Amino acid sequence: MLVEMDSNVTQPESFWDILQEMDPVWTTTVLLVPFVVVLTAGFFYLYGVVISLLSKTSVRNKVVVISDSLSGLGKECAGVFHRGGARLILCGKSWEKLEELADDLANASDPTVTFPPKLVLLDFGDMDSLQEAIEEVLECYGCLDVLILNSSMKVKAPAQTVSLEMDKLLMDNNYFGPATLAKGVLPSMISRRTGHLLLVNSIQGKLAVPFRTTYAASKHAVQAFFDCLRAEVEEYGISVSTINHTFISSSASGNTEHTSKSIWSLLYTKKPLGVSPDEAATEIVKTLSNKRKEVLIAPSLPKVALYTRSFFPNVFFAVMAAGVNHAAASENM
Fold it and tell me: What is the spatial distance between Cα 102 and Cα 29, in angstroms, rounded to a whole number?
C-alpha cells in the first residue's frame, strides 16, 4: 500500500532560513546584539583582570607608610600591602600592639616574597614627639614612596560643651598631625621627584552636620590643606589623593552614632555597618594605582546633599535645623 505525502506540508524552517527572509536591518540587529553583549562582557572582564593585576603590583617594592596601622582600616591596609610585597612602615601609639601586628603579618605570609615591617611610634596627639617620629620614618629606608594618612579622632557633642583642650586635641590629631607629617616627608619626595600622599578623610571634610563642630572643622581644614598641596607639588611628580567616606565600620554591632533616627543621620546611611575596612582598603589600592585625585565613598543621599549644599544652601540649612529639632524632641520624650 502506497502512502502519498501531502505536497502542501512544509518542513520546519531553520534559523538561518528565517534570517534570510527577514528584513536586512532586523537580521543585522539580531546578529549584532548578542555579539555586542558578549564583547562588552569580555571587555569588563579583561578590565577587571588588568585593574586587579595593577593593584597587586602598584605597591610591590614600594616604601609605604601607614600613619595609624592599629585601626581597623590600618590593619586591613597593612595586610593587603604586605602580601603585595610592599616595604611597610607601620605607625601607631602602642609599641606592643605594633609588634603583635608585625608578628601576625609575618606568620600569615611567605617570607621569601615579603618584607618584614618596620615599626615607628607615632602619636598625633603629642606634637612635641612628631619631629622625632618623622626622622625615624625617613631613616627606615632612606626614602618613602607612599604615605597613607588614615589617623582620626572623633567627638560628637554640642559646641558649647566641648572644651578648648578637646578642640586643640582634635585639631592636632586630624589636621596639624597629618599636615606636619606630610610636610616632613615632602623634601625627600621632592628630591626624588616621585611620591604619593593619600589622605583618608571623612565626608565631613566637604559636608558638615550638627554636633560635630570641631570634628568637621578639622576635616575641612585638612581637606583644604591637601587640595592646596596637590597643585603645589604636581610639578615634582608627586600625587596627592583624598578619599572621603561616610564612616568606616569596625564591628558587626554597627555604630550607634550613625543609627539614630534624626533626619541628618540619613546622610550616613549606606548599609548598617557603613563602609567596611576591606572595601576602603580596596579603594585605597585602586587610588594608588590610577592616581585619582579625589574619591567619594558614599551612597546617593550624601552626594545629593553635597550638591544641595553648593547650589541650594538655604534648603540644606533648613534640613540640618530640622534634624537638630528632631533630635532635641526625641531626647525630651
Answer: 59
Question: Nearest-CA neighbor of 281 among 47, 146, 80, 54?
Answer: 80
Q: What distance in Å separates the CA atoms of residue 39 and residue 174, rounded to the nearest whole number?
A: 47
- Of 45, 141, 175, 215, which one is the catalytic site residue? 215
All three cell numbers of 73: 582600616
Q: pLDDT class for 194, splitting at 50, 70, 90? A: very high
Q: Residue 122's pLDDT band (boundaries 50, 70, 90)?
A: very high
- Ramachandran region of residue 254, left (φ > 0), alpha (ψ -120 to 50) or beta? left
CA 72, 75, 81 angle in degrees (round to 5)?
Answer: 140
At residue 253, the 3 state secondary structure works out as coil
SS3 state at 156: coil
Give yes or no for a contact between 201 and 223, defined as CB atoms under 8 angstroms apart. yes
Residue 69 has phi, psi (to 5 degrees) of -80, -10
User: How far apart are alpha carbons 105 and 31 in whole angstroms?
Assistant: 53
Strands, sheet with 294-297, edge to edge from the N-terminal-most edge strand: 118-121, 87-92, 63-66, 146-149, 195-202, 238-245, 294-297
Q: Which cell numbers in the block locate residue 103? A: 608578628
CB 245 within 8 A of CB 200: yes
Strand, coil or helix: what is 298? Answer: coil
Active site residue 307: no
CA 286 centroid distance within chain: 9
Radius of gyration of the CA atoms of the chain, in A: 27
Report d(CA 236, CA 197) in Å as an integer.
13
| Percent of the chain residues past pLDDT 70, beyond the cut | 72
Give the span between the Cα atoms of 113 and 124, in whole angstroms.
Answer: 32
Q: What angle do CA 212, 216, 221 make, to 5 degrees?
A: 155
pLDDT tens digits for range 248-287: 876 433 344 444 445 445 454 444 447 889 999 999 999 9
